[in-house]
Amino acid sequence: MRKNWILAGIVVVLMACYLFLFMGGSPAFALELRSTRLIAIVFTGVAIAISTVVFQTITQNKILTPSIMGLDSLYMLLQTSLVFIFGSQALMRAGSGQWNFFLSVILMMGFSVLLYRLMFKGNGRNIYFLLLVGIVCGTFFSSISSFMEMLIDPNEFQIVQDKMFASFNNVNSSILVVAIVVFAVAMLYLMKFVKYLDVLALGKDHAVNLGVPYNKIVMQLLLIIVVLVSVATALVGPITFLGLIVANVAYQFLKTHRHVELLIGASLISLIALVGGQLLAERIFHFDTPISVIINLCGGVYFLYLLLKGAKL
């Protein structure tokens, strides 16, 4: 737990630097704008970190993230379909309101519930069957999105392309309030199942032998994961590799199997990555490079490192 206090100290310093450095000629306006972005960063970072750690515990695989279920691809399919059917103006109007947020969250959750029904309906099917179906559906959604992107006007394609990268630069405060409420409900529900995570990490057979109702617990945990990922994606856009980075750095830095510490540590590392990345994007790259590009670049390299490290074991 001492390491988590160190991480918390770094987070506080980074947040103070982000809020109060280089405020320019209008400190009140800058502080209000940065505060909104910082709140979005906190809820997005914690949602992605916790959902990834719980997902990796359920799947017992440390190189998987919830995006493998095709949620990011489904989100991009929705945004591309809006432009393809109604035009870019419809997407811009939707992007400034709440209904696009609710539509994205409901669509992703509905898709996940359909996957769960497939998973738990048949005998002998397990979570790896769910992942396989998710990969196939994600590829299908990406193919349809690519097809529609080839047909739309190049100027409208540019607007769709902006939706492919997460950004904290234009966070809508009305959407942020709704996202916080949904996030808080999901986190309160998750608290009920934290005590099972250490046992679930031992595997299905051990968990069942120790009296854990495995299928029931896993199904509810997957629903919480989908809610957290959906809220984060609909709020700022997809950040594919963030969860992979923060979860694995938390495992290596904390060197513990206690999920209470892992969840807190991964959340703090996620905040360090996002606040530090946003500082780089604003002060070094002058808003020319979205934070998701920096994180995905680092995450891609780290993913290759994990694959090479696993191949040597």
TrEMBL record:
It is found in: Cell membrane. The chain crosses the membrane at residues 6-31, 38-58, 64-87, 99-120, 126-152, 173-197, 217-250, 262-281, 287-308. It is a multi-pass membrane protein. One of its GO terms (biological process) is siderophore-iron import into cell. Keywords: Cell membrane, Ion transport, Iron, Iron transport, Membrane, Transmembrane, Transmembrane helix, Transport. InterPro entries: ABC_BtuC-like, ABC_transptr_permease_BtuC. One of its GO terms (cellular component) is plasma membrane. GO terms for molecular function: transmembrane transporter activity. Belongs to the binding-protein-dependent transport system permease family. FecCD subfamily. PANTHER family: FERRIC ENTEROBACTIN TRANSPORT SYSTEM PERMEASE PROTEIN, PETROBACTIN IMPORT SYSTEM PERMEASE PROTEIN YCLO. This is Iron ABC transporter permease. It comes from Listeria weihenstephanensis.
